[in-house]
Amino acid sequence: MKKVIEAKHLNKYFYKPVEFHVLKDIDLSIYSGEFAAIVGPSGSGKSTLLYALSSLDREYEGEVLFNDVELKTLTNQKLAYLRNRSIGFIFQFHYLLADFTALDNVMLPGLKLGELPPEELKEKAMQKLDLLGIADQAMKKVNRLSGGQQQRVSIARALINEPRIIFCDEPTGNLDSKNAMVVFDMLKNLTREYDQTILMVTHDDSFSSKTDRQIQLLDGKIIDRETP
Amino acid sequence: MNRFPILKIVLTHLTSRKRQTIVSMLGVTFGITVFIFQAGVITGLQDFFIEKTINSTAHIHIYQDKNQKSPPVLLDVYDADKTWISVPNIKSKEELPKLKRGLQIVEILESYPEVTGVSPSLSTQAILKLGVADISGIINGVNVRKENRLFDLEQDMVSGSIIRLETVNNGIILGSGLAESLGAILNDNITVVSPGGVALQMKVVGILDTGLRDLDNNRAYSSIRNTQKLMNVTGSYITDIKIKLENVERSGTLAREFQSRFGYTAEDWKEANEGIFSVFRIQNIVTYLVIISILLVSGFGIFNILSMMIYEKMNDIAILKSIGYTDVDIRNVFLLEALIIGFIGGLIGLLIGFVFSWITSIIPTNIEGFVSSEYLNINFDPAFYLLALVFGLVATGIAGYLPAKKASKIDPINIIRSQ
Ligand SMILES: Nc1ncnc2c1ncn2[C@@H]1O[C@H](COP(=O)(O)OP(=O)(O)OP(=O)(O)O)[C@@H](O)[C@H]1O
Ligand SMILES: [Mg+2]
């Protein structure tokens, strides 16, 4: 199986307010088509690890390779293209442009990429919204949608450019249990039906147990339970 | 890349903060309005004055400069560098000296194809008396037909006619201000006394109003012959030759040519009005300073609103960057916001400025300054309007660039972490 992301001797420190070694010598690979979960207690460094792997945080020591390219070597321009082309993000707090409609939000990464003419892109965005069961909300401004609906718009947006990998940081953390279930099942469905690679941070065991692989983090170290 | 999302983001930002957007637009509008109005009025006045001046001064004026004193003869004896020579009281005469061969020079000048009119003249100070009033003025002795060809006196006559200067013995045409202070009206008989003590009875055959205050208050015209009588000189005595050219722009070049050919001072009209032009230059500097300071203030307004906007839209910036928008895209969003504020504010400013100028130009003002006219002459030159808009855009562009640059430097990780 092809490696999408590989971390080698990844170390991360925070220097403020006091020096703090958050990630300790992490070696980790995520493979194409995998549905992996990072789990661990609060404060163990799950989010920090996800940010480093997903190109958001490049102030680390060691190496993070995305398709065999070390992230630190990318210029800002190339980094933007990588995020646009190959990465989807879903965060705990629905991370959408509040003044825009659901459809506009989904189209934004596609418009930046510019591979499809706007009309076709719009159609594709509608398909993604339909896939997530919210096609009827397309023309509503996102701040008029419920939390669960907004999170589904985020997923549709993450999907629009068909990225190599989607990073999620507690995508269900802000939802009630019913909606959390719906969103999780949709993510899982994407990995099963469309072979989408997903790396998800969660501290909910009932979800992580349904993924292909759990990466256990404790005090910034991976506790070996890996089954590659 | 498709421009749509950027433009859409820009418009959403601008409309989501309507009040600030409008206030900062008004800042630009105010600046541009003042620019248009002030520049229109001031350059309009200047153009009006220049036109009047061109019409009432000669393009080239030939005379003998009485201030060009010959160097003291003592210098011929003591020519060593180390010698100090002091000669007090070199005399300078009251009136301009005679132009020798003056009338011949006039004939030569008339044969130049570029010269459209030549008018020989002489002038003297005189006291004009009517009843108990006596006023000092300047009597210009002219050939009235020739003078008219140069200065279109006929057009400025408020009563009487220029031709009566030739038909009436001892006729005189008074400037309007002069006539008013004398209390003289058409066909009054006045007494004119020269500094040399010669007195002439003269009949007012016309009153002239040029709109140039200084001229109207002092100037009177009479025939060359009568002026020579007043000055007690012979029939060939003239002191000035005034020349009108086909093309005003050639006045400098031709003035230099005439000066070397005839050996007298030949001054072109710009030189003659040097003082006024330096006043204009100062006026223009003041105008630009005022405009620049207003634009500075409106630029600061834009800087403020954008800085606030960026603070509020931190989240949006982080989102856009995390989904692949580049630093340049983000910078363009905010720069475009500034430019749109500048452009719309500027256009409105042009419109209001135009309306103000237009209203001002149709209200009778009867200003009395060094020029008098019934209406303010206002410059509506489109080049101003273009310049004003460019000025506005440059100012807002600069004001927008700094916050825009700052926005483009925002790292999304800092915003995502803090959630
Ligand atoms: N910007 C920062 N500066 C200093 N310390 C930080 C910073 N961000 C996180 N930390 C610390 O690093 C550690 C790991 O944080 P992180 O957010 O990765 O934890 P987490 O596993 O995601 O926790 P949670 O499950 O609560 O989200 C924590 O102890 C946290 O206090
Ligand atoms: Mg976390």
Oligomer: heterodimer
Relative strand content of chain A:
25-35%
Q: Which regions of chain B have little confidence, pLDDT < 50, spanning 5+ residues?
A: none
Instruction: Kindly report the spatial arrangement of strands forming the biggest sheet of chain B.
Output: 2-3-8-5-7-6
Q: Which second-level CATH architecture of chain A applies?
A: 3-Layer(aba) Sandwich
Treating each run of at least 4 consecutive H or I residues as one helix, how many helices of chain A?
Answer: 7
Helix and strand sequence of chain B: HHEHHEEHHEHEHEEHEHEHEHHHHEEHH
Instruction: Note the main sheet of chain A.
Output: 6 strands, mixed
Quote the CATH topology of chain A: Rossmann fold
* N-end to C-end Cα span of chain B: 31 Å
Shape of chain B: elongated
**Number of domain modules of chain A:** 1
What is the strand tally of chain B?
12
Termini separation of chain A comes to 10 Å
Biggest sheet of chain B, in brief?
6 strands, mixed, barrel
* Biggest interface, CB < 8 A: A-B, 32 and 26 residues
Q: How much helix is in the residues of chain B?
A: 55-70%
Coarse structural class of chain A: alpha/beta
Number of domains of chain B: 2
Spatially, the strands of the biggest sheet of chain A line up as: 6-7-8-3-9-10
Report on this structure.
The complex is a heterodimer of chains A (228) and B (419). Chain A is α/β, with parallel strands linked by helices and 228 residues long. Chain A contains seven helices and ten strands. Chain A has one domain: P-loop containing nucleotide triphosphate hydrolases (Rossmann fold). Helices cover 35% and strands 26% of the residues of chain A. Chain A has a six-stranded mixed sheet, sandwiched between helices. Chain A has a four-stranded antiparallel sheet with strand order 2-1-4-5, with helices on one face. In chain A, strand 9 and strand 10 form a beta hairpin. In chain A, helix 4 crosses helix 5. The radius of gyration of chain A is 17 Å and the shape is globular. The mean pLDDT of chain A is 91. The model of chain B has no long low-confidence stretch (mean pLDDT 85). Chain B has two domains: 193 residues, no CATH class; 194 residues, no CATH class. Helices cover 56% and strands 19% of the residues of chain B. A six-stranded mixed beta barrel of chain B has the order 2-3-8-5-7-6, surrounded by four helices. Chain B has a two-stranded antiparallel sheet with strand order 11-12. In chain B, helix 2 runs antiparallel to helix 13. By secondary structure, chain B is an alpha+beta fold. Classes of the chains: A alpha/beta (228), B alpha+beta (419). At the A-B interface, helix 2 and helix 3 of A face helix 1, helix 14 and helix 17 of B. Bound molecules: adenosine-5'-triphosphate and magnesium ion. The site of adenosine-5'-triphosphate (ATP) has 13 residues of chain A, from strand 2 and helix 1.
